[in-house]
């Protein structure tokens, strides 16, 4: 524990032998010594006169936070010329205005011209002010900063190099942030032929090369280069086909076309890449990112250190397989090919996958056994999650049956005509079903989810990216292999991709150009995190499964305990399990109420009393902390209501719009409940556990949606389709339908083609 401004804080354990750069972004959180290079475009305003103070303050805050975590931060900064230009312009305007006021009067002030300012003079005038600004900002975080000005000659003189190295080490030892800049007031032109191939020499031509040189000299773990572009693109940013390169490897320069340099500064992207590769060769990891974007500049440095997918990461280690971006493109292309197949061919793929699940049962169960043993040995999974992780012969048989149902019901899912309209003579309009595009399904501890979701994606002609939890890695691997084997019979193996790289879920949620819909399958926390992280990509799912069962005064004694037991105890970890039991006040202290309590005790269900229920009891169970709780275990809340109307109001206030049930023999009361409860699934005298795609006859589901747009409830094939409009005409133009035109709109509904119901 260290202290900062009299406030204790915990430092991050950081230790690493320098010599080799980090292979993956996820390792950047272990960086101890970090250089942050601020380009001219980052620290200067758009008019190039003066500093972008808000941006600079945000950068200082992030650097201070990392410094106070126990890291050693250094800044290589531009900005002296811009700051000096602002000061000199002000001085010149002031002196000119005084002279002209004395000689010509105020009428001539508007004609004053600003002379061209020499950069070295601007740097000399701006360096002291820039440093004073940094010192004032760092003081707010109780951090001391020190200025160091260098030139290329300081690195060529061995004694000066040693002095510089010693000074920097001493400053870092004293927890001081060095602020380093080229001494632009006296800097000479770069020496010719000073960059030697294969030799640890790079001339300091600009702050990019200075940052790289310092990073290697100081054996830095990470160099962050901030500019005014998102990172390195494969062609100049702004061009039509430009794509951001997530990871750049040595030797990839040939695949990149460099554009012009930024509006200010000496180096362009080519100079940054050259400096980055030189630093990488010296054992320092490098990230080039945007330090000017208002939405990300406030956390860009900390995001990079946390390993998030920001900018371009330079790595010497190429992954064995494709990147997630490449997988997304493969899924897109494979999905389009899949959608173009005949319905019988897609069904044939799913039938083949169903057969493989039973034929390769022993191999699947062996892989699953490895996952279970590893999870138990590490003790990282709760019992409900271990149950979800477990596969069995009966589970595989049920999966195969469900897949065959999907295959049988998918014959006319894609390309089905749902509306036909005759707009005018020989002008017919059709609305037809089409795949959504590329789906990203993220699931935890549920290997059985993989073949289910794959079959639904295949049936609906969608490309699919799958991201499973590492606790099910062995099971997911073999199930994905079998899925691709089934897809191969019609040459569409790439349509379903399993993401095995170290991609964080939050990073996947940012791939809005590759992914059309995200479907999370897992804990409510996972769903909430994905909904928060998704940028421009719709998320289908539910964050919680707070399901209610209301027992009415007219409930059947025989039905009540059976339905409650099944809803709560059959599979308490499921999202469609009972969490809150609502009981009509008139049933308290009746034999029926006693039977319910006795059954729950026998099943070892822990009862939490709602506020009203607790008020009726002398010795009550533990009072519930919140009526909006998803237990996911053998626990439930019991609350008392006065009427069906009050039950509906309670569900609307505390429920999650998932599944809610009424138990009653009164048809009028039941219909009131069914019509007024605003949830995805509302049942009468049936267990909450029926809320499931397989039990609904959908074959399987990608999840249960509580959204009010597109799909709601268990989502099967229909929920993975959207529509497009097809208009067939014969030389039709809109002007023909004007008042002076020769044609009239008919808008006649036409009969739909006969559906294949076999």
TrEMBL record:
Keywords per UniProt: Amino-acid biosynthesis, ATP-binding, Kinase, Mitochondrion, Multifunctional enzyme, NADP, Nucleotide-binding, Oxidoreductase, Proline biosynthesis, Transferase
Subcellular location: Mitochondrion matrix
Enzymatic reactions: L-glutamate 5-semialdehyde + phosphate + NADP(+) = L-glutamyl 5-phosphate + NADPH + H(+); L-glutamate + ATP = L-glutamyl 5-phosphate + ADP
Listed Gene3D superfamilies: Acetylglutamate kinase-like, Aldehyde Dehydrogenase, Chain A, domain 1, Aldehyde Dehydrogenase, Chain A, domain 2
Keyword Glycosyltransferase attached: no
A molecular-function term among this protein's GO annotations: glutamate 5-kinase activity
Pfam families the record matches: AA_kinase (PF00696), Aldedh (PF00171)
EC number per UniProt: 1.2.1.41, 2.7.2.11
InterPro entries hit by this protein: AceGlu_kinase-like_sf, Ald_DH/histidinol_DH, Ald_DH_C, Ald_DH_N, Aldehyde_DH_dom, Asp/Glu/Uridylate_kinase, G-glutamylP_reductase_CS, G5K_ProBA
Lineage: superkingdom: Eukaryota
UniProt-listed GO biological process terms: L-proline biosynthetic process
Aspartate/glutamate/uridylate kinase domain ranges (all copies): 32-290
A Gene Ontology term for the protein's cellular component: mitochondrial matrix
Pathway(s) the chain acts in: Amino-acid biosynthesis; L-proline biosynthesis; L-glutamate 5-semialdehyde from L-glutamate: step 1/2; Amino-acid biosynthesis; L-proline biosynthesis; L-glutamate 5-semialdehyde from L-glutamate: step 2/2
Domain Aldehyde dehydrogenase: 324-588
Functional note: Bifunctional enzyme that converts glutamate to glutamate 5-semialdehyde, an intermediate in the biosynthesis of proline, ornithine and arginine.
Quaternary structure note: Can form homodimers/multimers.
Family note: In the C-terminal section; belongs to the gamma-glutamyl phosphate reductase family. In the N-terminal section; belongs to the glutamate 5-kinase family.
UniProt xrefs under PANTHER family: DELTA-1-PYRROLINE-5-CARBOXYLATE SYNTHASE, GLUTAMATE SEMIALDEHYDE DEHYDROGENASE
Full protein name: Delta-1-pyrroline-5-carboxylate synthase
Originating organism: Centropus unirufus
Gene, per the UniProt record: Aldh18a1
């Amino acid at each position: 524990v260290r202290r900062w401004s009299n406030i204790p804080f915990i430092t991050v354990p950081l230790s690493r032998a320098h010599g080799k750069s980090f292979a993956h972004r996820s390792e950047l959180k272990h960086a101890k010594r970090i250089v942050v290079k601020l380009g001219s475009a980052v620290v200067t305003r758009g008019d190039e006169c003066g500093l972008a103070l808000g941006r600079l303050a945000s950068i200082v805050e992030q650097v201070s936070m990392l410094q106070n975590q126990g890291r050693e931060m250094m800044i290589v900064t531009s900005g002296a010329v811009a700051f000096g230009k602002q000061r000199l312009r002000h001085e010149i305007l002031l002196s000119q205005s005084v002279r002209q006021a004395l000689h010509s009067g105020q009428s001539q002030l508007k004609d004053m011209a600003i002379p061209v300012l020499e950069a070295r003079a601007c740097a000399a005038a701006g360096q002291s002010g820039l440093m004073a600004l940094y010192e004032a900002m760092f003081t707010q975080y109780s951090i001391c900063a020190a200025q160091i000005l260098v030139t290329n000659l300081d690195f060529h003189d061995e004694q000066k190099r040693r002095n510089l190295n010693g000074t920097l080490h001493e400053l870092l030892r004293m927890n001081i942030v060095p602020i380093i800049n080229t001494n632009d007031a006296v800097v000479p032109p770069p020496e010719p032929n000073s960059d030697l191939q294969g030799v640890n020499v790079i001339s300091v031509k600009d702050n990019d090369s200075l940052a790289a040189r310092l990073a290697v000299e100081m054996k830095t773990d990470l160099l962050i280069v901030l500019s005014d572009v998102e990172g390195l693109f494969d062609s100049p940013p702004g061009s039509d086909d430009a794509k951001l390169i997530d990871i750049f490897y040595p030797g990839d320069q040939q695949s990149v076309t460099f554009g012009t340099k930024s509006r200010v500064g000496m180096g362009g992207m080519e100079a940054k890449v050259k400096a980055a590769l030189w630093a990488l060769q010296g054992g320092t990891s490098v990230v080039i990112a945007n330090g000017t974007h208002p939405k990300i500049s406030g956390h860009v440095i900390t995001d990079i250190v946390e390993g998030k997918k920001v900018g371009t990461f330079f790595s010497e280690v190429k992954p064995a397989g494709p990147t997630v971006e490449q997988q997304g493109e493969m899924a897109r292309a494979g999905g389009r090919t899949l959608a173009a197949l005949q319905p019988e061919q897609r069904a044939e793929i799913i039938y083949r996958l169903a057969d493989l699940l039973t034929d390769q049962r022993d191999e699947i169960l062996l892989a699953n056994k490895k996952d279970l043993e590893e999870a138990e040995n590490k003790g990282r999974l709760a019992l409900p999650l271990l149950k979800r992780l477990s596969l069995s012969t009966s589970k595989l048989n049920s999966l195969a049956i469900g897949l065959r149902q999907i295959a049988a019901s998918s014959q006319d899912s894609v390309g089905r005509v749902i509306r036909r309209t005759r707009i005018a003579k020989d002008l017919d309009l059709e609305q037809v079903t089409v795949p959504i595009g590329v789906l990203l399904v993220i699931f935890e501890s549920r290997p059985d989810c993989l073949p289910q979701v794959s079959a639904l994606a295949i049936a609906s002609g969608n490309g699919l990216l799958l991201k499973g939890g590492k606790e099910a890695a062995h099971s997911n691997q073999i199930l994905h292999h079998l899925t691709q084997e089934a897809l191969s019979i019609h040459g569409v193996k790439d349509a379903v991709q399993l993401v095995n790289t170290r991609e964080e879920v939050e990073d996947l949620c940012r791939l809005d150009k590759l992914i059309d819909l995200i479907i999370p399958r897992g804990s409510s926390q996972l769903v909430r995190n994905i909904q928060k992280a998704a940028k421009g990509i719709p998320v289908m799912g539910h964050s919680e499964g707070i399901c209610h069962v209301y027992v009415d005064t007219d409930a059947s004694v025989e039905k009540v305990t059976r339905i409650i037991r099944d809803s709560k105890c059959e599979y308490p970890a499921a999202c469609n399990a009972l969490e809150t039991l609502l009981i009509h006040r008139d049933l308290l202290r009746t034999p029926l109420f006693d039977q319910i309590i006795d059954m729950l005790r026998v099943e070892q269900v822990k009862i939490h009393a709602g506020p009203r229920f607790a008020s009726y009891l002398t010795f009550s169970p533990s009072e519930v902390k919140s009526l909006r709780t998803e237990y996911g275990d053998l626990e439930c809340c019991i609350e008392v209501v006065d009427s069906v109307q009050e039950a509906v109001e309670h569900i609307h206030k505390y429920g999650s719009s998932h599944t809610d049930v009424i138990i009653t023999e009164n048809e009028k009361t039941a219909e009131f409940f069914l019509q007024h409860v605003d949830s995805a699934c509302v049942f009468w005298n049936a267990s909450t556990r029926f809320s499931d795609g397989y039990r609904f006859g959908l074959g399987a589901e990608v999840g249960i949606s509580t959204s009010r747009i597109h799909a709601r409830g268990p989502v099967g094939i229909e929920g993975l389709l959207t529509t497009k409009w097809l208009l067939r005409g014969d030389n039709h133009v809109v002007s023909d339908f004007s008042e002076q035109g020769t044609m009239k709109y008919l808008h006649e509904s036409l009969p739909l083609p006969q559906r294949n119901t076999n």
